[in-house]
Specification:
The protein is of the alpha/beta class. Helices cover 35% and strands 16% of the residues. A 6-stranded mixed sheet has the order 3-2-4-1-5-6.
Length: 196
């Protein structure tokens, strides 16, 4: 059975500024670049056969140190592993969004599956990510470099949690690992470096 090693990207500039990113955003901060180097070192012990990655800049920059440490690895870019689309909230600070749309922010905090900023719901994200996960079956161990939202919904799917169950899982830390098989979860949100 294929094992998926899900790596969340390193800290981005917008993470550091407490901005919603979604499918927008920036590259890595200096801290994020160090996290990516630490993760690449940590991953050296994994028998990775292939890499699948989101196409967003913060993921590409996170993946580079790992690729630099390998002679050759099959890399596939798959847009289905992108972060949830937060629509008009992208680039806005958490504080600004809350000041302008407190009802929506509070509904989301209560666990309601709202399309933040007119983007996607978690139900929509979960459907696209789980389909992407099911399409990776020809390898033994695949590194998937992605975002917090896709990791949460993939873990919830692997655990057979009901719709909305991903909200019970803490958001994955930057450059943490979550390991799963399509039939279950192996580990969740494991730090890969000293920066926690």
């Amino acid at each position: 059975m294929t094992e998926l090693v899900l790596l969340r990207h390193g800290e981005s500039l917008w993470n550091a500024e407490h901005r919603y990113q979604g499918q927008q955003g920036t590259g890595l901060s200096a801290r994020g670049r160090q996290q990516a180097k630490d993760a690449a070192e940590y991953l050296r012990s994994y028998p990775i056969d292939a890499v699948v990655a989101s196409d967003l800049q913060r993921v590409t920059e996170t993946l580079q140190p790992y690729l630099d440490s390998r002679d050759h690895v099959d890399v596939r870019v798959d847009r289905r592993w992108r972060e949830i689309d937060v629509g008009s909230w992208g680039g806005r600070t958490f504080t600004d969004v809350y000041a302008e749309e407190p009802d929506v922010v509070e509904a989301f905090a209560r666990g309601e599956d709202v399309a933040r900023g007119g983007g996607e719901t978690f139900r929509q994200l979960r459907a696209r990510v789980w389909k992407a996960a099911q399409d990776i079956t020809e390898f033994q161990c695949v590194l998937v470099v992605t975002h917090g939202g896709p990791i949460r919904v993939a873990a919830a799917s692997a655990l057979s949690l009901p719709a909305g169950g991903e909200m019970a899982l803490d958001p994955p830390g930057n450059c943490s690992l979550t390991v799963l098989r399509l039939g279950g979860l192996t580990s969740y949100n494991v730090p890969t470096g000293t920066d926690r």
